[in-house]
């Protein structure tokens, strides 16, 4: 594999084929990048874009969000799913305001100290918000690496050391090109080298791909079981309870549990929301969002 040739192909392809997304536009702020990365975790791009714009209009800086209540963050999150992310983002805004003077830090070590920021998010912000040279590996990138480099039909389970090392060996030395290569690998996995129906005829590195050269074998490790359906799940039950509290401000245990047909599931949902800090109980038998 000619790493230089592969990187050049992807950088050139990305320059002409990238989607027009808010976080790729000139002048987009590091705070906006951080919010986008939180929202993009386990949520489709088309659902994130309008919510991101609403969020940044209301809270254009970390200090703006930090000055508001966690309850408002949860309300604004609405139905994006996995609402703990809203709580983590609020905590991160407070940390940025109190410890970093209201500016999103640029180095990975400091970014990793923020609530809700892991290896991927820290490097994504350092690279895409500040133009620094680090390998960035998400699900889409891992799939491209698995197919093009190792000849597997799908990526193995995530392994931070392995994944970052593999990506780093391909990363151009030039700062600008390294940023574009990181973004291009992610974009290639998102719109061409997709999980179920890869568009190999449109791939800029098809002739360099180890999986294609091997004849597209189904040789990956057995995939993890698919996530259970949302319909009827504890996640849905939690969402229904949060929706009522967003609307009313407060509700009793009986009111919240009446939303769920199965009493055991209602109790699980209520207790898990409290455990995650998404709801709090008042002195009376009433629940509300955290202040």
Structural notes for this entry:
By secondary structure, this protein is mostly helical. The chain folds into three domains: 1-16 and 133-224, Helix-hairpin-Helix base-excision DNA repair enzymes (C-terminal) (Endonuclease Iii, domain 2, Orthogonal Bundle); 29-128, Orthogonal Bundle (Endonuclease III, domain 1); 234-288, Orthogonal Bundle (Arc Repressor Mutant, subunit A). Helix content is 54%, strand content 3%. It is built from 15 helices and three strands. It has a three-stranded antiparallel sheet with strand order 1-3-2. Helix 5 (70-77) packs across helix 6, helix 9 (139-148) packs across helix 11 (175-191) and helix 13 (234-248) crosses helix 15. The longest helix has 17 residues, at 175-191. The chain is globular, with a radius of gyration of 21 Å. The chain starts with a helix and ends with a strand.
Give the neighbour order of strands across the main sheet. Answer: 1-3-2
How many angstroms separate the termini? 55 Å
H/E topology pattern: HHHHHHHHHHHHHEHHEE
The appropriate CATH architecture of the largest domain is Orthogonal Bundle
The counted number of beta strands is 3
| Oligomer description | single chain
Mean pLDDT: 94
The helix fraction, in percent, is 40-55%
